[in-house]
Each structure stands twice: as C-alpha cells, then as structure tokens.
Amino acid sequence: MIYLKLNIHYKILVFIFFLSSCTTVNRPIAKLNKFTQGLMNQLTNDSLGLKIDFYGNANLGSKYIDLKDVMSVFRKRKIKFPSKNIVLWGTYDVTRNPMYFVGSLETFLDVSKFTADTSMYHCIYYRSIQKNRDNIISSVAIPYKKDSFLLISEVRTEITDMQESVKDVLNSIKTSYNSLAYGAKFAEQKPDEEPDYFSIAESAFKDRGYVNYVYPRDTLEKLVLQNENSQFANELFKSYSSFLGESVQYDSATKQEQQAVEKAAITIDEIVEKIKAHRVLMFNENHLQPRCRLLINLLLPKLSKEGFNVLALESLSEDEDRINRLGFPNVESGFYTRDPNMANLIRTARIYGLKVIGYEDFGNASQRDLQQAKNLIQKSEIATKNQVKVIVLAGGGHIHEGDTGENKSMAQYFKKLTKIDPYTINQVKFLAMQEINDSIYFMDNKVLNGNDLYLSNNLNSDKIVIGSNDLNRRYRLSSTDSTKSGKSAIYIYHEKEYQLDKTAIPVYLSLSKKDSVQIELPKGMYRYLKRDHYGAIIHQEIIEVE
Hints:
There is one protein chain. This protein is α+β, with helices and mostly antiparallel strands and about 550 residues long. It has four domains: about 10-190, Jelly Rolls, CATH 2.60.120.1690; about 195-245, no CATH class; about 250-455, Rossmann fold (3-Layer(aba) Sandwich); about 470-545, Immunoglobulin-like (Sandwich). The protein is about 25% helix and about 25% strand. It is built from 15 helices and 26 strands. The strands form five sheets. It has an eight-stranded mixed beta sheet with strand order 13-19-20-18-14-17-15-16, sandwiched between helices. Strands 5-6-7-11-10-9-8 form a seven-stranded antiparallel beta sheet, with helices on both faces. Strand 6 and strand 7 (about 100-105) form a beta hairpin. Helix 10 packs parallel to helix 12 (about 340-350). The radius of gyration is 25 Å and the shape is globular. The two termini are about 40 Å apart.
C-alpha cells in the first residue's frame, strides 16, 4: 500500500551486526552492511562489493530480530544453518507465512544442482528452491572470491498452498536478484539511486495549486517504460490510472479460480439482511479497484438505519477532524482518498451522520496490524460505548480470519483485544475481471475459509453515488474529446466545496471521451471543468440539478 506520509527521502541506516558471546558472525564484513530503506530496501556492502534490492518489507539485522531467533526457526524445522562467517540476517513484515533469511560466506560450495541466472547488470547467481513439509527453503549463491560464495538462505513457513507459494518464491528471487551487482558492476552502479517517483507524482498532482490527475498518470507511464523493474513506479501508475476510471486487468489464474466456485446474484437489501445484526463489519478492498468503495457506499444508507455510526478507513491520513467538520476530503486527506469513489463514500457517510476515522499505523511498520487494531478500538470507542457499530474498509489481507501462523491480521488482533468477533466480508478474492454487469454475487463459501462472506463485485464504478442514489438526475455533458496538447480530463465538483477548497477531491472524474458523457448527479450545484494534460482549464460551466 502507498501512504501520503511515505518518507521518500531514503534514510541510510548502518547496522552494526554483533551477537554477544557468539563467534559465528563475521563482524568486520557485517558491520559494513548499509541498508537503504525506500520503495525497495537496498543492501550494499563495500567489503563484499555487492548490491541487492530486497522487498520494501524486509527488515535486516538485530534491530528487528536476534540472530538466535532466526537460527531457532531454521533448526526447529531441521534446516541447515551456517555455523560461521554469517554476514547478514533478517525477516519480512508479513501477516502470514513468516519468512526469515540468513547470509553466510561459504567455500567450495557445490552449485551443480542450482539453477544459474543473470541479473540486469549481467551478474551471475545460482538459485535453488526446496520443499520441506509446510516450509519452502530458497538458496541464492553469489560468487564472492575464487571458490567462495555469499549464500543467502531463506525459509518461508506455514505454507498451505505449496504450488502457488513456490511460484511466488521464484518470482521474488527473480525480482530481488535482478538488481544484483557485484565486482566491477557494483563499482559502476554505486551509488545509483532510483528516481523519487512519489515526489515526482506529487509535484505533478499538486501543480498550480489544484489537483491534476492526468499529468502524474502520463509522467509515471513514461517512467515505468524507462524502468520496467520498478514495482513502486508501476503501482503508482496503476493507482493514478484507477483514479481516472481506467481498469486494471487480472491474470488467467484468477479467472480460473473464480469459475471454480458457485455463485448467485445478491441484492443490496439481501446483503444488509445478512450482515446487519453484527456490531463490526470489516470489508477488504483491492486498492486499484474503486468498485470496492462503491459497494460500501451503496450499503451505507441502509446500514445507517441499522445503527451503524462509524466508518473506519485504512486509507485516511490524520486529518479526520477536518473531514468530519466539512464533510469532504482534499489532497491532504490521504492517498487513496483521491479516488472520487472513496471521496464520495466519505461524503455519504457524513450525510448519514457516521463519524469517519482513520486507523492506519504511520510509525510502527513491524507491528502494523496490531497497531491498526489498537487505533481502531481507541478511535471508534467500540470497547467503551455499547451503541457504537463500526464499518471498516481495510486492505486485502488485513481482515483474514484463517490460520495466519505467528503473525495475526488486524481483524484477529481486534477480536483478541475486544472479544468482539467482526463479520468479515471479502470482496477481493472474486473481483470481476472483465465482465462488468453492475451486479453483485454471493459466493458459495462451503469450499472457502478465512472470511465470513465472499462476494464477487461486478459493479460499474463509473458513476456518482452520494447519499441515496434514488434521487439522482441525468445530465449530459457535450463532447469531451482530448485536445491537440494530449489527453484531457473532465472534473465535476460540488460548487460549494470547490469555492471553499480548490484542492477538494472531485465527485466525478474521467479521461475525456469522443462522445458526449451522460452522468447522474444528486440535487445541487456543480462545477464542470475540462483540463488539459498540464492542468489548464479549457472549458468550464456551472451545472444546476433540481
């Protein structure tokens, strides 16, 4: 997930590795490890002469986990652990399948059964993946000196789907070690920092003192083409594309999984009947699919009549007092709140008197789910006020209730701390891919576990829902085709909000189209703007809906 408060300026942390009364660590080499935290966490070591980009949730060194704890994990599972020349170790911040790794210098290592691969810098490494009961052990051997290797061994534990997990491990190795540079290539690349994608997009988005969605989207598209290996740049690009209503496609494996489960159409009223008796409803979302927010927006008017009075959003930053006072978000309210569907969800919540809160943890990534649960309990007052009923919108796996091993999800921590069993609704696992027919389906969960209810969300998110959708009126915008300067976009604002704050999030947004656009608007006064690629206004008019 991307956060508005993301600190893009990399902080270089030097970890001095030591373990008292233990001689297994090669301290002269280990103390030269430098871990640069950012969109990918980069490890460099001048003594080894190498660079590796770990995933952004990797935690390296005794600041996060003791070497003896990593050793215990390996030995408990009867996995070979190095006895000397250890130069690095760590873990990953994950909600399930805990992962641990250790790196050591090995001489005369037999890599004949490993698979040779090459990084983008033409540096050879050797990889191996093995299965051990419910564990996956991966090993990567990097040439160090003559007849010597840096061997990085990683164990992924508590595996339930071995076939898919092996694929995921292989993909992770290929992604991380594609950045591997050592020897002369390390000297050439050092220091080679990736562009500050987030700040670039932020500057484009806030250009001229108001919001511009097209400029950062197009800028990021070019940057992704220049650096196809940057997952962060690609995620940012997809996020801004989704804000503009562009779809994100799924792979064939997801489609096959959807087809394997029986489903039946279900209405908004029927969903409400299924879930209204619970005090806490937890929905998950795919951050790149605005329809996940639209579903909750459609449920809100009826759920408010059932006593639900708090809307808790993972994506909200720390300006909830302003939102509850004014009733709408602006550019500083969060990152995913920039999606008009999320903004309209907030508007609907305030219309029906729900208090809007954010519960994200901005300062303790290693215990994120636990702190989220604590924030949710404290801000919602669910544990101290019996009249409180909460609707939660969380990212993908944070509402998982199945077996997650040692690391619990936010929903599990919430239940443990409050003794309140949240009713969890999964609308991510079976999200519609291509056939969007504006319907919702109930999935037969006899073969599913981990959540109370599974839905397939086929809603068309290209609509405006604020309050009760029954009172909307149709309005036709004239041709909104792009200009000679490139792409343009149509923005529709609440006129009162726009006059109060030019950085308010629009109630509707899309790329311009050749044909006229028909939309449905609630009663009120609106401002329709057409902006070009750089944000200049090329058309505007006031729309009054009676």
